[in-house]
Every structure is written in C-alpha cells, then in structure tokens.
Amino acid sequence: MLRARKPRKEVFVHIGQMIASARTPFCSLEFFPPSDAAQMPDFYATVERLRALDPLFVSVTYGAGGAGGRKTLSVTAELARRGFAVMAHLTCAGADAASLDAFLGELRSSGVCNVLALRGDPPAGQPWDWNQGAFCHASDLVAFVRERQPDMGIGVAAYPAPHPESSSFAQDRRHTAEKMRAGADFAVTQLFFDAREYEDLVAHLRGQGVTTPVIPGILPVQSFESLRRILSLCGANIPGKLYLSLEKAHADGGAEAVREVGLAFAVGQIRRLLDCGAPGIHLYTLNRADLCLRLAQEAGLA
C-alpha cells in the first residue's frame, strides 16, 4: 500500500531575517505597478535589467492611479515567480479586518510573505475622521498583521524629517517607535537629502531602546520638475545648496544636466550613509533602470 504523502511545508522568504543575516551592505528596489496593462512588458524588462544589482529584496507599491491592491497582488506574484524576494505595500486607511485578511491570504497563496505596513491616504473626496475605525495608525496595522500572520516579514515607513501631518517632531518620532514596537522587523525611510537626518533618526530610536534596522531610502533625481512634484507630496527637506545646483543645471542643460548633478550627490550620500552604519540602501527606482544602474555602480553597490 502506498503511503499518503505529507503536505509539503510552505517555505517563504522572510525579508527581516535576510536583513538581519546580511554581512555586507545591500541594495533593495521599489517599483510601482503600471496603470496601463500595455506598459507591463516594458515594466518587466526594466525589472530584469535591474536584476543585475542583485537586490536583497524588491517592494511593490499599493497600486498606481487608483488601481489599488489588485495590481499590487498581480505584480508581487509575478516577481516572486521570477525569483525575487518581494514585499507588497499594504495600506489600512479605510480598510476593515476582512479585506486585510483577504489581501494577506492572497499574498501567501502566491508565495509572498512580506508586507510594508502603511497607514495610507483616506478615500479621495470624502470627509475622514482618523479617530474612527480599527486602523487609525500604521502601528494598528502592524499589530494586526503580526497577530493574524505571525511568521510574516513586516516593514514600516520611517521619516528622517517629520511626516507632513505630524503636529511635532516628538510626535513623529514617537509614532515611528510605536510601529516598531508593535512588531515590525525593519523600517524603510522616506526619501531625504540630508544624511544627518537619517543619523539623528537612528540615534533617537536607539536611545529609546529600539534596535530595529532602518534602511535609508534614496531617490536618484530624474528631472527638476519631478523633484519639485515629489517634494510637494512627501514634505522632504532639501539643502539649499543642492536645490540651487539642480535649478542651475536645469536652466543650463535641462533634464540631462539635472540627472548628472543628482547622481553625483546621491553617490556621496550613499557612501556617507554606509559609512555611518546603514545596513543597505533602498532605491526608489520610479520604474527606470538607467540612472539606478549607474548610481549603484558608482556608489559601490553593484
């Protein structure tokens, strides 16, 4: 008589454990799902070009252009199938426990066991009270995921400069520590341009007894227009000298000159961050390969 086979044990890639065991500085990459299905072949071609950087992991934002989580699920599943360690962004604004459970279940069924737990933005065009509902803060989502999926890898966002909605610097730092204490394995920072802000953030957390790894997020500047748009959205600070240099480059040589100035700055920024103990660098790719490949090579990440 043939014996029934035992169910095969699920084997998942836990990004938090990978970060903890990394012996040399690494890079990781953020992508966003294209809003148009016709763009998917070019998107995956970009991903494959960036495979040359041997990223420790890649992350996929929560939709684009209102696409929401369906495209995130689709892209994360495909990247996992292609052999990447993948983390899906997950937001909780306006969500309920049932929808979050469903999303987490679909992630696991596709072989993905890592999320970046974010509060997210409220539904557009609707009055919103953050004091209502079960998920008022990202820390609530972290605690929920840790309870429902104890073995999942959980990342959170950290802000070297305070979040635009924070009432004070102290409140922002407190919320960051709360997310980590709720069960996060690591943090990825919002983009920033002053390495001292990252150093101060990490020093503050360590002073509070929080030892969670914090990965700095770096945005290679693509153009002056995109820089201004991104700064208006995230509230990051930019040193006046750098801004003036980029502004002059834009006036003298357009986007190509801006990219060269931005590249040189980012290379120096990455080197300083690694020198001060950053475990790795998270690159906001904007789904573009050329500048990220050059940046990683010149900064010694490739």
What would the keywords be for this entry?
single chain; 302 residues; 8 strands; alpha/beta; TIM Barrel; 46% helix
In short:
The termini are far apart.
> How many separate helices?
10
Q: Give me the side-by-side strand order of the main sheet.
A: 1-2-3-4-5-6-7-8
The appropriate CATH architecture is Alpha-Beta Barrel
Helix content: 40-55%
pLDDT < 50 runs, ≥5 residues: 1-9
The helix-strand sequence is: HEHEHEHEHEHEHEHHEH
Shape descriptor? globular
CA-atom Rg in angstroms: 19 Å
Percent range for β-strand residues: 5-15%
CATH topology: TIM Barrel
| Number of distinct beta strands | 8
Can you summarize the main beta sheet?
Answer: 8 strands, parallel, barrel
Give the overall pLDDT as a whole number.
Answer: 89
Head-to-tail CA distance between termini: 54 Å
Number of domains: 1
Alpha-beta classification = alpha/beta
What is the name of the CATH class?
Answer: Alpha Beta
How would you describe the overall organization of this protein?
- The chain is of the alpha/beta class.
- It has one domain (25-33, 54-299): TIM Barrel (Alpha-Beta Barrel), CATH 3.20.20.220.
- It contains ten helices and eight strands.
- The chain has helices spanning 15-21, 40-50, 69-81, 97-109, 138-148, 169-181, 195-207, 224-234, 240-275, 290-299; strands at 26-31, 58-60, 86-91, 114-118, 153-158, 186-191, 214-218, 280-284.
- It has an eight-stranded parallel barrel, surrounded by five helices.
